[in-house]
Specification:
CheY-like_superfamily, EC 2.7.13.3, coiled coil, histidine kinase, alpha/beta, 30 strands, about 1250 residues
Length: about 1250
């Protein structure tokens, strides 16, 4: 069993357990043999006498082992020491009680005891032991005292031995104490004494033998226990280490290699763990390399079935490919961005060609190139730019079909020519020449139209990546070339159109003169015909006499009829020419409209992208870049303004421009002027002032929008042409002596608005010309000031449409004065009345029988606040007595309000229409007769129906729902009325009740109205709504008519019957209303909205009107529209953008992707349908109208006919913005309509509505 530990480790676990079993069996067998050996050894009588020696040696050996244990701290010596000392003590103990053994034991037992007390080496033969037994027994009989003395000595030695044994067992600090030393010395003395008693050793043989046997048994037990312990440790300790290592490895903590080497199961398990640990460490190392960008770090497969290593290597390959693709994409996008930057701006064709060619050559590391522009008329390619090309190799032009360049007209693909002959041509420098290896021929095609060819040559290979870049950049270069050519053509067309217009005017004048001459000829011919008829009558009477002359007259008659036919034919020709002239005018309008559409399309992407860049949401642009983007955005807006001006002029000439007359306030126009132009004037250090003469009426009847447009046009010119001094706008009554061009304009009933500047002035010979379209005072190519020359022409026509005219006074270098003269009230009264009625609330244009809509302001009752400039809230005061009305006005002013006063209901309604008050205070005196009927008048009028109404002084018999509070006319109680008005008008928190049984509709309305200062309650039935209105005061109710328990109309009736004040009410219903039902509901509200297209926008407008009616007069109020919907609604939505313009797709895609939306693209309706087939989870479609192959209208019709995609919302986007375009889009199935250039805010507002729905 003395195997080395390293070999023992190699044992299998079952072998180790088998060893333990074998050792145990062998130990038992050995114990038997030893017992037998001791009994056989007792044959020698002297064994008993050697007992002392055996005892002494054993004890001394035990002490020696103990000393070794102290010195070496080896546990084995400690065990051996205890063992030997105990053995010696056992021998001593046996001998010390031998007399008892002799007396109490039989011979056989004694022999057994004798043999068991001594080691086997000292066992005598049984016969000798029998003799020893007899002798001891005889000695006990003869001299028991002697035996007892010997036993006492042995007992004393035994006690000393036990004392020393206990010291050794209890003493564990490795040192021998003095007490132990004394005991050992005393024991040694005792051994000397005991040597004298050697005769008694034989008597103690049996005891010694028993002691030795006992000691041996103990030794065997300890030995087996030790082996068991060693085997257990050899298994459990490595297993515990492995378990701990596996747990740490499972947690991702790398471990060191385990050094347990063995061929056993544990060794094999340890080796497997080390292999797993090594693989884990190698994986971590490779992953770190990959994370640092080293994609060569791969794992070597350990077997064919090593799926992990193969998967890991595939991931590394994919990451490497993705990295390479990202680098290529970045290179690709950088090139496109730099190319766009190079080609940005209004460049001539030569600049575009040169910039495009130089950038492409440098970016692709080519050595030379050329760019040709194709002339369709001459069918020739003209050289516009060259790079690195010797003069001898330059062809200034190439005919179609000649050479490689000329033969590319029928191809749209890039031609790649390799392995050029050495003598093809050379690329030279100052030090030598080299032949190119490859050339590329790139056809510049856009919209299936060839615009030119670019040729590149290089001494290096043109990679597939470079060719793909050219395929993409091709469109950008071509679009810019096409835009530059189109810009030149447009300028030529505009000049040609202007010339044609002048020619048409001349022809029109000639036709007018010819027509007048023909009319005169017709009159003469008619008179001649009458004379001939008289002559015929005379000839008939004298028929017989003048028969021959009759024949002649018949011939003359035929001739006259022929002439009449010729005149009729001439008249028809004149009508045809007039129609042709009208058609030519229509062609011009159509041309301008279509051209504006073509210009709006690129403007759309220009404005969107430049606006995005100017906002710099990603923060990656410099301040200079932002300013450049802002300049681009502003220039785009200026160009859009130019297009709008051209369209306005076209509308005016075509007679399609309309005006809407309404009460107009000069003070409001003044505020707009200061707001729009004050900053511009201050920037040029000009003094800007607006003066309103006190004699002009507070309001006059005109189209405020068109009048403001005229004033702003003239003011813009004044600021443009004035470098120093001042600009003054004056509103005055027209001087009666003013000479007018219009005969229908009455000077006494007219206003003059003068814009006076101290600018450059206008020469006398240019004063008439500047009012013509496209004319300017300075029309030279070196003119100082820009502009189109349309503004004054449009202003002149608009002034005429308003019933007025424009006068001009100007001196060179002194300044100019433009005077707008308009009537206070236009003559075409019927048209005004029609416009006013059209704007009335939806009650079929019918008014209550006692209400009259008047455009004039009633006579001032008392001196009130109607001309005050204060921003305080306005109260409408109705009182028939002047003194009491003045007192109430004073109290209202003390409460920080202003007021306008009326003596009766009729005048009050007229004041409400003009000044739009925020609250009404009415005297109870007016209500003493027909009080309820008068209150009904206020309630039925749209401008007073939703105003808080307060009746002052007690009144009997009035309905409670018509008054908020009843007080007496004194200052104390009146203050509480004012406080109530304050509470209603200026409360920071607005309360809205939504009465709607449909949860989705309630949620949509909540989203529309959601903001910090609006509190929204909901009711799903009429009963719940009635309870809420009883318990809480609301500013506005949004009411659906179709409720589960009773209708919304019945709810309004119940509130009236219960004398509960009805708040401002908006009826928001999907139910079609009859004329009678409409009129009945109008008693409660003038806001009835049918659910459907754009109903959400109308709802927002109506709520804004109710809740923010005071906001105009209270600057502290907040706008309802400040609230915005949660933009998280955009995240993850999938939008399909359909447009044949790649620039529009790119621009829209950018702003949509910024909102975390996924964008799909299609360049026409046909492709859009294919995309929809493959992606049936698209949330919304932005559809252009004008596209090749399949237009937007056709595509929408196909979508609506396809069941799976028919419910996808579709928003039309087009540069055409006429009402008929909107109606056409809706008729074809579109959900909504958005005109180009697309406004980003309008787009996202519209998307929020349709994406939520």
């Amino acid at each position: 069993m003395n195997l080395p530990i390293s070999k023992f480790r190699d044992w299998k676990i079952k072998s180790r357990l088998f060893l333990l079993t074998v050792v145990s069996i062998i130990s038992i067998i050995l114990l038997g043999f030893l017992a037998n050996f001791f009994f056989q050894s007792s044959r020698v009588l002297t064994l008993f006498m050697n007992a002392d020696r055996i005892h002494n040696n054993t004890f001394n050996n035990g002490l020696q082992d103990y000393y070794k244990y102290i010195a070496l701290n080896d546990k084995t010596y400690y065990i051996s020491s205890l063992k030997k000392i105990k053995e010696a003590n056992t021998m001593a103990y046996t001998f010390s009680s031998i007399d008892e053994h002799i007396q109490n034991l039989s011979r056989k037992d004694f022999i057994a005891l004798f043999y068991s007390a001594f080691p086997s080496s000292h066992h005598p033969e049984e016969k000798i032991v029998n003799i020893l037994y007899d002798r001891l027994k005889l000695l006990n009989k003869i001299n028991p005292q002697r035996l007892k003395e010997n036993q006492a000595i042995a007992k004393y030695g035994y006690n000393l031995g036990m004392h020393i044994q206990k010291h050794i067992e209890n003493h564990k600090d490795g040192e021998i104490n003095f007490e132990l030393l004394n005991d050992i010395n005393e024991l040694k003395t005792h051994f000397g004494d005991f040597a004298k008693e050697t005769e008694q050793i034989s008597n103690n043989v049996n005891t010694a033998l028993i002691y030795i046997i006992g000691f041996f048994i103990l030794f065997i037990a300890i030995f087996i226990s030790s082996i068991s312990y060693i085997i257990n440790r050899s298994i459990s300790k490595p297993a515990a280490i492995l378990a701990k290592s596996f747990k740490l490895l499972n947690k991702g903590i790398p471990q060191k290699k385990l050094n347990y080497k063995s061929n056993s199961e544990l060794g094999i398990l340890t080796q497997s763990f080390n292999e797993i640990q090594f693989g884990f460490t190698r994986i971590i190392h490779n992953i770190q390399k990959v994370s640092e960008g080293d994609y060569t770090a791969k794992l070597k497969p350990r077997s064919k079935q090593d799926e992990f290593t193969h998967t890991f290597n595939r991931i590394v390959d994919q990451l490497k490919a993705s990295h390479i693709k990202n680098e290529e994409t970045n290179w690709f996008r950088t090139g496109l961005n730099q190319l766009n930057k190079k080609l940005r701006g209004d460049q001539e064709i030569s600049e575009v060609a040169n910039n495009a060619l130089q950038f492409t050559i440098k970016f692709l590391n080519a050595e030379l190139g050329a760019l040709y522009i194709y002339d369709e008329g001459d069918e020739v390619f003209n050289l516009k730019a060259a790079y690195g090309l010797p003069d001898k190799n330059q062809f200034k032009f190439i005919k179609k079909g000649h050479g490689l360049v000329g033969s590319i007209t029928d191809s749209t693909e890039i031609k790649h020519i390799k392995d050029l002959p050495k003598d093809y041509f050379t690329i030279f420098s100052g030090t030598g020449e080299i032949s190119p290896k490859e050339i590329l021929l790139i056809p510049l095609v856009f919209n299936n139209h060839l615009w030119g060819v670019m040729e590149l040559a290089s001494i290096q290979e043109f990679t597939l990546q470079k060719i793909k870049f050219l395929e993409t950049a091709n469109e950008t270069i071509t679009v810019n070339i096409a835009s530059s050519i189109a810009r030149e053509r447009l300028e030529n067309l505009l000049r040609t159109t202007q010339d044609q217009a002048n020619e048409l005017q001349v022809q029109q004048e000639e036709l007018r003169v010819a027509n007048e001459e023909l009319e005169e000829h017709t009159k003469i011919l008619t008179e001649n015909e009458k004379r001939l008829q008289v002559q015929q009558e005379e000839l008939r009477v004298a028929n017989e006499e003048l028969e021959e002359r009759s024949n002649q007259l018949e011939l003359q008659k035929n001739e006259i009829e022929k002439q009449n036919q010729n005149l009729s034919q001439t008249h028809d020709e004149l009508e045809l020419k007039a129609k042709e002239l009208e058609q030519a005018s229509q062609y011009k309008s159509d041309f301008l409209a279509n051209m504006s559409h073509e210009l709006r399309t690129p403007l759309n992407s220009l404005l969107i992208l430049s606006g995005m860049l100017a906002k710099n949401k990603k923060g990656n642009l410099t301040q200079s870049d932002i300013e450049s983007a802002e300049i681009i955005h502003k220039s785009g807006k200026d160009l859009l303004q130019l297009i709008n001006e051209v369209l306005d002029l076209s509308k005016i000439e075509a007679g399609k421009m309309t005006v809407e007359f309404a009460p107009t306030n000069a003070e409001e126009i003044k505020q707009e002027i200061m707001l729009d132009f004050k900053h511009q004037a201050e920037k040029k250090k000009l003094a800007l002032s607006v003066e309103i003469d006190k004699n002009i009426p507070k309001t006059f009847i005109s189209d405020k929008q068109r009048l403001s447009q005229i004033i702003k046009n003239l003011l813009s010119n004044a600021i443009k042409f004035t470098t120093k001094g001042s600009i003054t706008v004056s509103f005055d009554k027209l001087d009666d002596k003013t000479a007018l061009m219009r005969t229908d304009l009455d000077p006494s009933q007219a206003l003059s608005i003068s814009i006076t500047d101290t600018g450059v002035g206008i020469p006398d010979d240019k004063k008439e010309a500047i009012f013509e379209a496209f004319q300017q005072a300075d029309g030279s190519t070196s003119r100082k000031y820009g502009g189109t020359g349309l503004g004054l022409s449009i202003s002149k026509e608009l002034a005429y449409m308003l019933g007025g005219e424009i006068h001009l006074e100007s001196k060179i270098d002194q300044g100019s004065t433009f005077t707008i003269i308009i009537p206070e009230k236009p003559n075409h009264e019927s048209e005004i009345k029609h416009e006013v009625i059209r704007k009335m609330p939806p009650a079929e244009n019918e008014k209550p029988k006692d209400v009259e809509i008047e455009l004039s302001v009633p006579t001032q009752f008392i001196d009130d606040d109607r001309y005050s400039d204060s921003n305080k809230a306005l109260v409408l005061l109705i009182h028939p007595e002047k003194e009491k009305a003045k007192k109430l006005l004073h109290l209202i002013n003390q409460n920080d309000f202003k007021a306008v006063a009326a003596a009766d209901i009729k005048s009050a309604i007229a004041l409400a229409e003009t000044y739009q008050p925020s609250s009404v205070i009415i005297s109870s005196i007016l209500l003493l007769t027909d009080g309820e009927e008068k209150l009904e008048l206020l309630k039925n009028n749209p401008l007073t129906s939703n105003l808080p109404l307060h009746v002052v002084s007690p009144v009997d018999g009035l309905k409670e729902d018509e008054k908020d509070q009843l007080t007496t006319v004194n200052a104390v109680d009146f203050d509480s009325a004012m406080n109530e008005i304050n509470k209603q008008l200026f409360s920071n928190s607005k309360h809205i009740l939504i009465v709607e049984d449909n949860a989705n509709t309630r949620q949509v309305i909540n989203l529309l109205l959601q903001q910090n200062d609006v509190q929204i309650d909901e009711a799903v039935s009429g009963t719940e709504a009635l309870t809420k209105i009883k318990s809480k005061q609301y500013d506005c109710i949004i009411l659906d008519l179709g409720l589960p328990d009773f209708s919304g109309h019945e709810l309004l009736k119940k509130l009236t019957a219960l004398n509960i004040r009805i708040p401002n009410t908006i009826i928001y219903t999907g139910k079609e209303l009859s004329r009678e039902k409409h009129r009945e509901l109008s008693k409660y509200t003038n806001s009835i909205i049918l659910k459907g297209l754009k109903s959400d926008e109308r709802l927002m407008d109506e709520v804004s009107l109710f809740l923010h009616h005071v906001s105009i007069k209270n600057p502290q109020s907040q706008s309802l529209h400040n609230g915005t919907l949660d933009e998280s609604i955009f995240k993850g939505k999938k939008i399909l953008v359909v447009d044949d313009e790649i620039r529009n797709i790119f621009a829209l895609g950018k702003i949509l992707e910024d909102k975390d939306m996924e964008v799909l693209e299609a360049e026409n309706g046909k492709i859009a349908l294919e995309v929809l087939k493959e992606n049936n989870n698209i949330d919304l479609i932005l559809m252009d109208v004008m596209m090749p192959e399949m237009d937007g209208y056709t595509a929408i019709e196909h979508i609506r006919k396809t069941p799976k995609i028919k419910d996808i919302p579709v928003i039309c986007t087009t540069a055409k913005a006429m009402k008929e375009d909107y109606d056409k889009a809706i008729a074809h199935g579109a959900n909504d309509y958005l005109s180009k250039p697309i406004d980003e805010n309008k787009l996202f507002s519209m998307l929020k509505i349709w994406l939520y729905n």
